[in-house]
UniProtKB/TrEMBL annotation:
This is Pectinesterase. PROSITE patterns: PECTINESTERASE_2. Its EC number is 3.1.1.11. The keyword Hydrolase applies. It comes from Hibiscus sabdariffa. The active site is at residue 461.
Length: 626
């Protein structure tokens, strides 16, 4: 750990050291300036590049990506790496003959369209990472590090999602697209590895209140505290560097002991008995039979004094009758929140909040009253869409917030993959919302996300994707599947170890719909299966009913993820929570109390900096009494 810890200080010191080298070169040899100076600059730049690229998996690509930067400053080198990644994606988009060939392929048209969109997302995420890093002082990297990690992970997931769309359509074309994206994925992973190395310094050392020059001296006091991959001459060079190179102390991280956020006036998740109607036969049933029990607490909107910018109402009393039309007129790239009040009614439409349409907030009149529903599915819609493109509501804008609404894909289990909501925007939050569907109900795709007091229903993989998401006080309800199906609640899709994705379920309830209960021992249910090799799921302080099989998990694709995944259950309760007979995969981990805390919303999502202002209750740490 210490090795990683010194990594950034080492680099910062290197900057000063190389600056001094240059300074002396100028001072002493004014006359024969040019050549020597350039060479010394070159060599210090090369040294810095090698040092920064050392931990990456694809070193040659890393070094090459930084070679044009003409700098030994870590920040500029890392930015050069981001820029090279963008250029690589653009090169594929603009100059690849294979891509032109794929574009003409009728059979995979839908996948190609997804890829065009997703490449653009990846470019946007990399470019804003480049800008963000440019704005800050390396000493304050901690302020933006998680953001950069999440954006780069998003760029990686976007590229992977393009390949997913192809693999749903055609094997040969998938192989071609995979090879086109190899280099850009490698570069993106390198970028993440570099960022992850920077993290160790600030996260593992409590710098608060300490004199950083002291830390610097301490870290530099012995050779053994340098990263083991660093050459002796580099160590010497860095050791000679003056103290001023130390970065200033970062601001103290959110105090984990801070008081619990205010609770909503709305009562949180309804008991499983009340929960979701089977809407396969009649998707409208939810609205037609509002439950009196939940009536008084149905709308949480009353807690916030959010004034809507526009009103959508089925009965013509608002500015719009369609949610999609209201979104189409919303401002682009707005820093201000744009609030769309959606009055009670069933909105049969698809809604897309594109990337770049930021800070949209939907407020409904309660999940039994405001319902957005459609029925696009992979199996029943022609032409056959990609899973990515089945969502009733897709939200890619940053800061998309929804409260008091039901989102539904009503096709039923026969539609197979049929998403109700795809959430791809960073800093998205859903409060008192219902997500109703069967297979693939909620695609928590990428970015930081927070779900609170929600209900999610489904049959297979009904929470899936690779967002960095926390689900708090949320009810997960298994519904009756098709005859030949088993049920799986979660299929997390983290593909690479570098990525920041992973799901946390805290004080959630895993339960079954009453129509499912009679078949629960025939069509069995599992908590989780690894969609990809590094799938990551933490279930803590939650209620697990006896609908979950004792083994808890099943494989998805041979032995994929059984060793490299990361699955934790901590402090759960209920008859399904007994872990004694769980599968014995190496990926099943035990955490102690200090480690599990990392997965609460405060540290994991930096929730305190963005959730309280949304009027959404959030307990940022362990929930007391559970
Ligand atoms: C780096 O230096 C070389 C040679 O001095 C020059 O040609 C190139 O334009 C410089 N690149 C940047 C990004 O400044
Ligand atoms: C935990 O979840 C249960 C059931 O959803 C809820 O009643 C309870 O209030 C939650 N606990 C806290 C501290 O929020
Ligand atoms: C689902 O249940 C039916 C009977 O209701 C049974 O025939 C079938 O084998 C079960 N399938 C799975 C995969 O559990």
């Amino acid at each position: 750990m210490v090795n990683n810890v010194v990594f950034i200080i080492v680099m910062l010191v290197a900057v000063v050291a190389s600056a001094l080298t240059v300074y002396f070169a100028i001072g002493l040899q004014q006359a024969k300036k040019s050549k020597d100076e350039r060479e010394s600059q070159m060599s210090s730049s090369n040294k810095a590049i090698q040092a920064i690229c050392q931990p990456t998996k694809f070193k040659d690509a890393c070094e090459q990506s930084m070679s044009s930067a003409n700098s030994s400053e870590p920040k500029e080198l890392i930015r050069a790496e981001f820029k090279a990644t963008v250029e690589e994606i653009k090169r594929v988009m603009e100059h690849s003959a294979t891509l032109q060939e794929l574009k003409k392929d009728e059979k995979t048209k839908a996948a190609f369209a997804d890829c065009e969109l997703l490449f653009d997302w990846a470019i946007q995420d990399l470019e804003r990472s480049f800008d963000k890093l440019g704005e800050i002082d390396m000493g304050k990297i901690d302020d933006v590090l998680l953001t950069l990690q999440v954006w780069l992970s998003g760029a990686l997931t976007s590229q992977q999602t393009c390949l997913d769309s192809y693999s749903e359509m055609d094997g040969q074309a998938t192989a071609k697209m995979t090879s086109l994206l190899t280099k850009s994925q490698e570069l993106t992973r390198n970028g993440l590895t570099i960022l992850n190395g920077l993290q160790s310094l600030t996260k593992d050392l409590d710098l608060t209140g300490l004199d950083t020059s002291g830390i610097n001296r301490r870290l530099m006091s012995s050779d053994s505290e340098f990263p083991e991959w660093m050459s002796l001459s580099d160590r010497r060079l860095l050791q000679e560097a003056p103290d001023e190179a130390a970065s200033p102390s970062p601001p103290s991280p959110t105090d984990a002991s801070s008081a619990e956020a205010p609770k909503s006036s709305a009562e949180s998740p309804k008991s499983s008995a009340e929960s979701p109607k089977s809407s396969a036969e009649s998707p409208k049933s939810a609205a037609e039979s509002p439950k009196s029990a939940s009536e008084s607490s149905d709308s949480a909107a009353a807690t916030g004094d959010f004034k809507p910018n526009v009103i959508v109402a089925k009965d013509g009393s608002g500015k719009y009758e369609s949610v999609a039309k209201a979104v189409a007129d919303a401002p682009k790239r707005s820093k201000e929140r744009y609030i769309i009040l959606i009055k009670a009614g069933i909105y049969n439409e698809r809604v897309d909040i594109p990337k770049g349409v930021d800070n949209i907030m939907f407020i409904g009149e309660g999940p039994t009253k405001t319902i957005i529903t459609e029925s696009v599915s992979v199996e029943k819609t022609t032409p056959r869409p990609t899973t990515f493109n089945t969502a009733t509501v897709s939200a890619a804008g940053v800061g998309f917030i929804a409260k008091d609404i039901t989102f539904e894909n009503s096709i039923g289990p026969e539609g197979h993959q049929a998403v109700a909501v795809r959430a791809s925007g960073d800093m998205s939050a859903f409060y008192n919302c219902h997500f109703n569907g069967y297979q693939d109900t909620l695609y928590a795709h990428e970015g930081r996300q927070f779900y609170r007091d929600c209900t999610i229903t489904g049959t297979i993989d009904f929470v899936f994707g690779d967002a960095r998401a926390v689900f708090q006080n949320t009810l997960l309800v298994v519904r009756k599947p098709m005859q030949n199906q088993a049920c799986i609640v979660i299929a997390e899709g983290r593909k690479n170890a570098e990525s920041s994705g992973g799901y946390v379920f805290q004080n959630c309830t895993f339960s079954g719909d009453k129509e499912y209960l009679p078949v629960k021992n025939k069509n069995k249910s599992y908590l989780n299966r690894p969609w990809r090799a590094y799938a990551k799921v933490i279930i803590m302080q939650s209620q697990i009913d006896d609908i979950i099989q004792p083994e808890g998990y099943i494989p998805m694709d041979g032995d994929k993820g059984l060793t490299t995944g990361y699955f934790v259950e901590y402090g759960n309760r209920g008859p399904g929570a007994n872990t004694e007979n769980r599968v014995k995969w190496p990926s099943i981990q035990q955490l102690d109390e200090s480690d599990i805390k990392k997965y609460t919303p405060g540290p994991y999502l930096e929730s305190e900096s963005w959730i309280p202002e949304l009027g959404i209750p959030c307990i940022p740490n362990m929930i007391p009494g559970l």
